[in-house]
Amino acid sequence: MTTLITQTIAKVVVPLCVFLSISLLLTGHDQPGGGFIGGVMFATAISLLYISFGLDDSKKFFNPDWSLYFGFGLLLATAAGIGSIIAGYNLLRTDYTYLQLPLFGEVELSSAIVFDIGVYLVVIGGLLFIFKKMGED
Amino acid sequence: MNLPVAVVLAIFLPFFFAILVPYLERIVKHNIGWFSALIGLISFLLLVLISPEIIRGEVIHYSVSWIPSVGVDFGIYVDGLSLLIAFLASGIGFLIMAYSTEYMSHREDLARYYQYILLFMGSMIGMVFASNTIQLFIFWELTSITSFLLIGFWRNKPQSVYGAKKSLILTAGFGGLALLTGILLLRAITGTFDIPTILADESLKVLIKEHDLFLGTLFLIFIGAAAKSAQGPFYIWLPNAMEAPTPVSAFLHSATMVKAGLYLIGRVHPIFSGTEAWLIMVAGTGLVTMVVAGFLALRQTDIKGLLAYSTISQLAYIMAMYGYTTYQDPSLGVVAATYHLLNHATFKATLFLIVGIVAHEAATRDIKKLGGLRKEMPITFVIATIGALSMAGVPPLNGFLSKEMFYEASVDIGASLGQPYNLLIPMIAVIAGVLTFAYSIKIIDGIFLGKRNDEHLPKKVHDPSIIMLGPAAILAFIVVLFGIFPSIPMSFIIEPAVSGIILEDISIYASLWHGFTVELLMTVVTFGLGIIIYKKYDAIANWQDEFNKKHPTFSLNYYYDEIFGNATENAKKISLKFQVGPIRAYLFPIVLIAILSVLFPIIILSVELTPITFNFETPPYELIVFILIITTAVMAAIIPSYLPAVIAVSALGFLIGIVFIFLLAPDLAITQILAETLTTIIFVLVISKVPQTFKEKIPRNILYRDILISLTVASTVFLIMLYATQGIIEPFESVSHYFLEKSILLTGGHNIVNVILVDFRSLDTLGEIVVIFLAALGVYNLLHSRGERK
Amino acid sequence: MDTFLLLTISILFGIGTFLILRRDIIKMIIGVVILCHSVHMMIVSVGAFDGIKAPIIESSKYPQPEYIFKDSISEGIFAPVVPESVSVIYMDPLVQALVLTAIVINLAITAFLLILAYRIYEEYGTMDADELRRLRG
Fold this sequence. Notes:
The complex is a heterotrimer. Chain B is an all-alpha fold. Chain B has 32 helices and two strands. A two-stranded antiparallel ribbon of chain B has the order 1-2. In chain B, helix 3 packs across helix 20 (487-502). The relative contact order of chain B is 0.06. Chain C is 59% helix and 3% strand. Chain C contains four helices and two strands. Chain C has a two-stranded antiparallel ribbon with strand order 1-2. The interface between B and C is large, with 101 and 96 residues. Chain C: Its main location: membrane.
C-alpha cells in the first residue's frame, strides 16, 4: 500500500479528515457528530496515515503514545463529572450559555463539551492504541 | 463518668488498642502482653463502674440512629445478664493475657496473638451489650471470626488449620446464617430490630407466639445458639478447636465465646419460652448432649480433649436448665442456669490454665504419659483439685451448689410433666452427673496421683512462676469463695442477671447446707455411682475405641469430613458436568429455553390478541439494500477462506450504514461507516498474520442440526419483533419525549442523540468509554503476556 | 414496521448464530460481528416511531410550541407530533444514542477478539476450537 499515489493522497486527505473530525466534535451538540463520531473519524484518518506510509516510516515524523490519550481522556471525562459536584450540582450535570463572538455571531457554549472531549480522546486513544500495538507486532 | 460513655469505651477500647498493638510491639517487644492485659483490666474496671446501677435493678439503654431507613440503630442495652458475660469476657480476658506473657514463647508472633485476643474481647463485650439484633449479629460473627483466627494461630500445623476451618464453617457459616435468617424472621413478625422494644412489649410476645412463623424463627435462632455453644450435632467443632494455644482455649472455648450461645438463649428466653417447642428443642438438646458428651469425654487421652468434651457437657446443663423454665414461671431453673454459667467459667478456666501449666512444664498433655506430679508441683496440684472437684460437684465448692440446683430443677420439671418424665429426667441428670464425676476424678488422678511416669516425663518438673500460677490461683479462690458464701455472687451478680431474663426484680436465698432433700440424695447417689464408674474407666474407654474402629461411619466427624473435606473435589465434578466447553453444548439448552419461555407464550397469546398486519410498502432502493445485506451475510457464512469472507463482512457493514440512513439516524450512519473501515483494517491485519491452515469440513448431520438451530433462532427473533412492534404489550409513555422536550431548554443542544450521550445519560457514557479503555488494556496485556512466557 | 427489514434482521441473526457454532475461531468472530450488526439494526428499528425527521431539532434555540411532545394513549399518540394531523415528526433519539455507543464498543471488542485469536494462533498454532481444547488438555 505504500505507493506514491496513496502517499500523495494521504498527505492531502489526512489533515482534512483531522479537521473534519475536530469540527464533528465541536458541532456535535447541534449537528450530527460528537465525541464518538469525531474520535472514530480521527482514528480512521490516522490509520490511513499508518497504512500509506508504513508504521515504521511514519514513526519517524509522527509517533505519539496513544495510551496517554485514553488515560487523559478518561481523566478529563471523570473530572467533568466531579467538576459539577464542586460547582454544587449533581454528578455530571451540565450547563450552557450563549456567547456573542465577533465573527461567528451567537455561539452556544455548553459545559458538556469538556465531557465530550474526554470521550473523543478515549475513543482516539483506545482505537489507535489497539491498532498500533497490532501493527507493531 | 457518664455511664453510656463508659460502656462504649469498654467496647471500643480493645478494638482501638488492637489496631495499635503491632506498632507498640516494635517498641516494647515481648512486654506487649502486659499492655494488652492492662486494656483488659481497664475494660473490667469500667464495667465495675457501671455495676452499682445494674445491681440496683436499673438498665442502661442508649442508642443513636445508624441506618434509619431500615430501622437499625447502634445502641447499647446493659442489664444484669449482659453485664455478667461482659464481666467474664473482660475479667478472664485480663487474667488470660497476664498468664500468656509467660506461657507464649517470645519467639511467637506476639503482636498478632494479642491483637486477636483484644479484638475478640471487644466483639464479645459489644455482642452482649448490643441493643439491636443486627448489631448483635455483626459482633456475633466477629467473635466467630476472631475465634477462627485464634484456633488457626499456628498456621503451619495442619490440625490447627483443620480445626479453625471447622469452627468457622459450623459457627459462622451454619450458626451465623441461621441466626441472621432468624433475626430477619423476627423482624418480619414484630417489625423491629430493637431488642428492648420486644422485651418490654407484652403484646408483641403474644403476637410472636401465635404467629405462623414462630416455629421457624425459634428453630433458626436456636440453631445459631446451639452451633456457637457446641450443642447437639454441632459439638464436633469444639474438640478440634483445642488446637489453639491453651490460654485461648481457656478464654474462648470454655469461659466466654461458647457462652455466647447461652447468652442468646437467655436473651430470647422471655420471647420464646413457655412453649412446647422451646421445651423440646432447648431442654431436649441439652439433656441429650450432656450425656453423650460426658460419655465421649471418658475416651479422651489428651487432657484438653477431655476438657473440651466436659465443656460441651457442662454447657448442656445450662442449656437444659434454660429449656426447663418458662418466662412466666421461672422457678429455679433460670437461677441455676445463670449460676452454673458463672461457676463453669471459673472452674473450667482454672482447669484449662492448669493444663497449660502442666503442658508447659511436663511437655506433654497425654494423660497416659503423665502421673504422680503431686510432689513436684504441689501448688498446681491443690489448684487443680479445687477446680476438678468443683466440676464434680463436691461440697463446699461452687459447682456443688449449682449442681444441686440443677437436680432440683430436673426433679421439678419431671414432676410437672408427669409420667414417665418424673423419673426419666432426674435419671438423665444423675447419669450426666456421674459421668462428670468420673472424668473430673480422672483429671486429678491421671496427672497428679499414682506412679510417676519416668519414661515420658522430663527429669525435673516444678511449679511455674507466680505469673502463671497467679491467674489460676485467683480463679480457684473465687471457686471456693462462691461455694462457701453463695450469697455474694447471688446478690451481686446472679440476681441482676436473672432479673434481666425474667424482667422483674428477684430475691434469691442460697446456702451451702439446705437440709436433707431429694437433691442431696441424688448427689450422694452420684458420688457412689461415680466411684464405681471410675473403677471401670479404662474398660469403658477401650470399649469406645473398639466400637469406633468397628463402625467408623457411626460418627458425626465422619460425615463432616465426607461433606466438607471433599467439597472442592465435588464442586469440580459438578461444575464439569455443566461447564463442558464447546459453545454448541451450551446453545442447545439456551435455544430450548428461548423456545419455551419466549416463542411459546407469543404463539399462544397471538391467537387471541392481535391480527398481525404486514407492511410490504418498501421503496425499491431499500429492498435492493436488504437483498444485498442478505447476500453478503450468506457469502460471509459459506465462503471457506478468510479474506473473501472478511471482505463480505465489511461490505455488509457499509450496507448497514446505509440502512441507518433509511432509519433517519445520521450519527449512526457516519459512525457505522467509519467504524467499519477500522474493523476491516484490523481484520485484514490479523488475517495476514494467521495463515489459514484449518478448513472446517462440516459433517452432514451437524450441518443440518446447526441450520435447524439457526432457523429456530431467526424465527424466534422474527416473531418477537413482529409482535413487539405491533403492540402486544399495552402502550405506555415513551421516555424519549422527555429528551425531545427538554433538550434545548436544559442543555441548549439541538442534536438530541449527542445531548443524551453527554448530558442526560452521561454517567452511562462514562461507563461505556471505560469499556473501550479496558479493551485497549486487554490488548496490551495479551500482546505483552507473551514476553513473560518465553 | 417494514416487514422486509424485519426479515433481513432475522436472517442476519440466524446466519450469525450459524457462524458462532463453527469450529474455526475467525469464523466465530465474523459471526459475532454479524450478530452485533443485527442487534443494532433491531434496536434502532424497534425504537423508531414512524417519524419523518432525524432527531435533530432545527433553527430555534427555544422549544417549538407547534409540536406536541406529550403522549396521549387514548388518542393513540406515542410520539412528538404536529398538531391537528397526528403525524409523527421525530425518530426516537434514545435508541440511537444507545446504538451509537454500542457500535464504538463493538469495534473495540472486535479488535480485542481478533487479537485474542492471533495470540491463540501464536501459542497453539491452530484456529480450530476443538483442536485447541485437546491441546489445552
